[in-house]
Amino acid sequence: MSAGSPFVSDVPAAQAHTAWREARAAAGCPPRVGVVGVPVGEAVGRVTAAPVWARRSSPAFDSSGMDGIAVRAADTVGAAETTPVLLTDFAVVDTGDPLPVGYDAVVMREHVHRVGDAAEVRAAVPPYQHVRSIGEDISTAELLLPEGHRLRPVDVAACAAAGVTELAVRRAPVVAVIPTGDEIRPIGATLEPGDILDTNSLMLAAQAREAGCEAHVTDIVRDDPSAITDAVRAGAATADLVLLIAGSSAGRDDYTARVVAGAGTLAVHGVAVRPGHPVVLGVVDATPVVGVPGYPVSAALTFDIFAAPLLAELEGAAPRERPSTTAHLARKLPSAIGMDDWVRVRLGRVRDRVVATPLPRGAGVLTSLMRADGLLVVPSGVEGHHAGEEVRVELLRGLGEIDRTIVAIGSHDLVLDLAASALRATDPLVTLASSNVGSLGGLVALRDGLCHLAGSHLLDPATGEYTLPYVDKLLGDDIAVIRLVHRDQGLIVAPGNPLELAKIDDLTRPGLRYVNRQRGAGTRVLLDHELARRDIDPADVPGYPREEHTHLAVAAAVAAGRADAGLGILAAARAFGLDFVPVTQEPYDLVLRTESLTDDRLAPLWTLLDAQAFRDEVESLGGYSCAETGRRVR
């Protein structure tokens, strides 16, 4: 690949690792970081650079393992409940005391009956009962730890017990994080249109420190090849790994690949992973360099896939592995052939099986990583998975936490977000994980045993009823329906309603930009019903095909000026300071299997819905009525 090449390849991940490793070796990159001596009490998290041998035994002497009396075992022969033995030759000992010379066993204090100055023993004891022999735990010259072991608290305690006061360990690798871009601004800066906060540096430096490294973030470097080259060379002179943020793709101001190629060796530009495809791997001045994509999810996963294994290798340790589990997908997961697809998922246990719900997959959706309980990799040769299919998931949270997660799938509503926060504040072990797939998608997920709750406000045009007709058609008997709220639905419009929209009929105005909800969403069904009542063809609504998956996303589009109107709830309009044209008030319900009403996992939610303080907080959002909150309607 030439230094000026703008093209991004599709190198398989394993091949990319190999090419980068070969480039590092050819450039003379040190295979390991240096060795330092540290006091044993400061060594946790570091990696041993040499075997650790015991310098003393532990215990260093025969000691009592119990509070009691030290005796000669032979003196207790024949002792029994009916034929006790009275001892006058013994020594009182406490746990940890050296075993007095001449004695070879200990009788627990609870089993000793004192008779004046004598001790009555009612059971014979074998030699060395309740005695910790010298070297029972550790023997002098025993191998305690091999080279390449990452030290834990128990390890340093064992080393100290064995007389080791200082350990030879690999020093912490140093990572230089270099943000680039004319549009990038420091955290806390006032932003103008087009500006972007430098959150990637904050995240990558934290990831490096979490991996046990020392991380330094430079000032933001402007989009200038010469300035970027200088920054990379300066970083390479002091660090063991350089992370160069943004500029790794093929845009006009994407200079990372040509800078690395011009200043050193460009091993790979473009890896067949998603997100993170345009990653750059190379070497400058005998220091590995990773060109990290600018999208935050791509940046985070690039660190996990490429930087973390290298940093472990520099310390001579095995890469840290997360535990994994099998899970069943809550909905269909398509994937493009030719790339390893890293998908963030939420997890919960439903009917004795773990359920994985994919989160939004955009490379810029940082909150999808924040909310993720696990990572699912769809290999490059697989087109995706069907709903209900079993998959392997790498865990970002413990299974114990996942077992206490309430899985809600269906229509989006801010009350569920508020409930999730309130539940966690009351009990940190309780999680409410809601996934927004629309009312119909939630009912289907409940039918298929993939969630505990389905949030629904699905209008049946034929009867005018909400949700219950669909429950009858899809779910049948043994289903409970709990009223969550009544809420106001209407047109979300710009402040002041500049287009003076007053009713659904106004959505057909030429040039108007409407933003819709996805198919299967209750709000989409409501709009279609209102259009049908007026004999309006959806094709006559400009923007009808454009879809968003939440009320907040609809409001965000209007607030950003990318749309003129969208149907949604009043609370979403208020959240963005927008105006609202009322259309209807509708019930929003929670649908679940009857047996789940007594499930301990859901009990905190029912308690919350009964709390007046929570109801007051919901109504303060605007557009909500909690008059029937918690009432069972089916």
From TrEMBL:
Reactions performed catalytically: adenylyl-molybdopterin + molybdate = Mo-molybdopterin + AMP + H(+)
Domain called MoaB/Mog: residue spans: 176-313
SUPFAM superfamilies, sorted: MoeA C-terminal domain-like (SSF63867), MoeA N-terminal region -like (SSF63882), Molybdenum cofactor biosynthesis proteins (SSF53218), Periplasmic binding protein-like II (SSF53850)
Pathway it works in: Cofactor biosynthesis; molybdopterin biosynthesis
Protein family: Belongs to the MoeA family.
Keyword Metal-binding assigned: yes
Role played: Catalyzes the insertion of molybdate into adenylated molybdopterin with the concomitant release of AMP.
Cofactors, names only: Mg(2+)
Pfam families cross-referenced by the UniProt entry: MoCF_biosynth (PF00994), MoeA_C (PF03454), MoeA_N (PF03453), PBP_like (PF12727)
Enzyme class: transferase
NCBIfam families tied to this protein: molyb_syn, PRK14498.1
EC code: 2.10.1.1
Keywords in alphabetical order: Magnesium, Metal-binding, Molybdenum, Molybdenum cofactor biosynthesis, Transferase
Lineage, uppermost ranks: Bacteria, Bacillati, Actinomycetota, Actinomycetes, Pseudonocardiales
Listed name of the protein: Molybdopterin molybdenumtransferase
